[in-house]
Amino acid sequence: MTGSSFYSVEKVADGRSGGTTQAESRIYNERLIVSLVRRYGQLSKADLTRLTGLAAQTITTIVNRAADGGTLLRREPLRGRLGQPSVPYSLNPEAAYSFGLKIDQRSADVVLVDFVGEVLGFERTSVDFLTPSAAMTFAKAAIARLGRKHKSASNDRIAGLGIASPFHHLQRHDEGGIPTAWVASWQEVDIRAELDRLFDWPVYLFNDALVAAGAELMFGSGLGRADFLYAYVGDSIGGGLVLDHHLFPGRNNLAGALGSMPLPATGQSGRTLPFHQAGSLRALSGKLEGENADRIWSSPEDWGDWGSALTEWIDETSDGLAYLSQSAVALLDIDNLVIDGAIPASVRKEIAKATRRKLARALADRPEPFSVIEGTFGHLAPVIGGSSIPLLVKFSNDKELLFKD
Question: Would you list the domain boundaries of the chain?
Answer without folding.
Answer: 3-9+96-213+383-402, 22-91, 223-375
